[in-house]
Design a protein that fits this description.
The two termini are about 30 Å apart. The strands form three sheets. Strands 3-4-5 form a three-stranded mixed β-sheet, with helices on one face. A two-stranded antiparallel sheet has the order 1-2. A two-stranded antiparallel sheet has the order 6-7. Helix content is about 40%, strand content about 20%. It is globular and about 55 Å long. It has seven helices and seven strands; from the N terminus they run ααααββααββαβββ.
């Protein structure tokens, strides 16, 4: 459940003041508490992965409580292309939203963490994301592959409304859902149409 960097001991040690780091036994105390946190995190991951959350109502209340802690809800309204929609999420959809919210609350703003965290959340279900800089400064284009297995309408609406986005301050986001495998990319942006070659699926 815990994303990088808050799942590392060094993250917490760096939060200590110089006085506290030099205090006898302080770092050892932090390490003890971190080990407890790591054990809880590991067990939570194992439990969530082993639960058949889609096919049992028994886990609804547990996920609702976790969602409330991180600041999301199973029932929410989103705005997609100027239209307000009311969504009721399944357990799998809610779990993806919970994980995304945890990342949003602990994002350090780097591209590497962005890609790493999205890979940890969505790669295990075969989803493909792509991001690139837009034509204008401060614009990022975020693409979701429409051929992703298990992609639901709620997932589409959550993505297009920005709820699956780890945002950085001052950046505007453009959302698209396309078949990435059929996208074409110029081999050289400085060439003209007659002497360029399309690379399919790049």
């Amino acid at each position: 459940m815990l994303p990088f960097p808050i799942n590392t001991l060094d993250y917490y040690l760096k939060k200590l003041t110089l006085f506290m780091r030099n205090s006898f036994g302080m770092e050892e105390h932090i390490e003890v508490f971190f080990n407890i946190l790591s054990d809880i995190d590991s067990v939570t991951d194992d439990v969530l992965q082993s639960l058949d959350i889609d096919n049992s109502y028994l886990y609804d209340d547990v996920l609702n409580k976790i969602a409330q802690i991180v600041g999301v809800s199973r029932n929410l309204s989103v705005v997609v292309e100027g239209i307000t929609k009311q969504l009721t999420l399944t357990n799998s959809e809610l779990l993806r939203l919970i994980k995304t919210k945890i990342i949003q609350n602990n994002y350090n703003g780097t591209r590497s963490q962005f890609l790493s965290n999205y890979s940890n959340i969505f790669s295990n279900i075969g989803w493909v994301f792509d991001i690139y800089d837009g034509a204008n400064p401060g614009v990022v284009v975020s693409i979701l592959d429409e051929s992703n297995p298990g992609l639901t309408q709620n997932d589409r609406d959550l993505f297009l409304s920005g709820n699956y986005t780890v945002k950085s301050l001052g950046i505007s986001y453009v959302y698209q859902i396309i078949n990435i495998g059929r996208a074409g990319v110029w081999d050289d942006p400085n060439k003209g149409w007659n002497n360029s070659v399309w690379q399919v699926g790049s």
